[in-house]
Design goal:
It holds the Pfam family GST_N_2. This is Glutathione S-transferase DHAR3, chloroplastic. By secondary structure, this protein is an alpha+beta fold. It has two domains: 106 residues, 3-Layer(aba) Sandwich (Glutaredoxin), CATH 3.40.30; 119 residues, Glutathione S-transferase Yfyf (Class Pi), Chain A, domain 2 (Up-down Bundle), CATH 1.20.1050. A six-stranded mixed β-sheet has the order 1-2-4-3-5-6, with helices on one face. Strand 1 and strand 2 form a beta hairpin. The longest helix has 21 residues. The chain is globular. Bound molecules: glutathione (GSH). The site of glutathione has 11 residues, from helix 3.
Length: 258
């Protein structure tokens, strides 16, 4: 039997599970607005990092559909850094949140008693403070796939099928397909890195939103994009941090209808 040297979960535990590798134990506290995840052996010495994330708009006290929050959570998961999520209702931001987040945006993470906003800044700080495993993407590959999200939004919002937005988006996906074909399975080769952790939540939104609102899916000809998505979406880190499908659909509705 695997012995885990964790603090016992406090009363009100919803679930406690051991991963396939026997490495991860999850303690989901029922305390309103908070979910603590204690991950892995390395992280046990550290107390969980506090992170404010978007709350689900369909299920109270569940993680919502913010790709920037998932990017940060993925980075923590991949680095085995334990975290304590504080759910924020972005449609009715609480006072305590507005005091720590000047722009009223999530994610924000507390490092050394200071709340830090912006996923770019937060993921860099995580890299500096928790260097293992290294996740930095080399500069020449750091922007691979970075135009997919904006061109996906252009296509999603478009009401004119002949306005070229689909083709602009497909061109970006095709460039990404070629990159993964030559360099894959990840953006930087054999190992997952920061650029993948930034892009993957956006591809997840793309898949769900375009499937729902446009009955669209990635063409079979872009087989490396398809296998990349399957590969990243099936990682334990991704499954542990993904938004619910209904939240992604609801989250994009105002943009599609607007
Ligand atoms: N550049 C920021 C963007 C963060 C962002 O836009 N977050 C959205 C949620 S996905 C937000 O908090 N919006 C505030 C609001 O909806 O009022 C980052 O990378 O962290």
């Amino acid at each position: 039997m695997i012995s885990l040297r964790f603090q016992p979960c406090t009363a009100g535990v919803l679930s406690a599970s051991v991963s396939r590798a026997g490495f991860i134990k999850r303690c989901d506290s029922t305390k309103p607005g908070r979910t603590v995840r204690r991950i892995g052996t390395m992280a046990m010495a550290a107390s969980p990092l506090e992170i404010c994330v978007k709350e689900s708009i369909t299920t109270p006290n569940k993680l919502g559909d913010c790709p920037f929050c998932q990017r940060v959570l993925l980075t923590m998961e991949e680095k085995h850094v334990p975290y304590d999520m504080k759910m924020v209702d972005l449609s009715n931001k609480p006072e305590w949140f507005l005091k720590i987040s000047q722009e009223g945006k999530v994610p924000v993470v507390k490092f050394d008693e200071k709340w830090v906003p912006d996923s770019d800044v937060i993921t860099q700080a995580l890299e500096d403070k928790f260097p293992e495993p290294p996740l930095a993407t080399p500069p020449e590959k750091a922007s691979v796939g970075s135009k997919i999200f904006s061109t996906f939004i252009g296509f999603l919002k478009s009401k004119d099928s002949g306005d070229g937005t689909e083709q602009v988006f497909l061109d970006e996906l095709s460039t990404f397909n070629d990159h993964i074909k030559e360099n894959g399975p990840f953006i930087n080769g054999e190992k997952i890195s920061a650029a993948d952790l930034s892009l993957a939540p956006k591809l997840y939104h793309m898949k769900i939103a375009l499937g729902h609102y446009k009955n669209w899916s990635v063409p079979d000809s872009l087989s490396f994009v398809i296998s990349y998505m399957e590969n990243v979406f099936s990682r334990e880190s991704f499954v542990n941090t993904q938004a619910q499908t209904e939240d992604v659909i609801a989250g994009w509705r105002p943009k599609v209808m607007g």
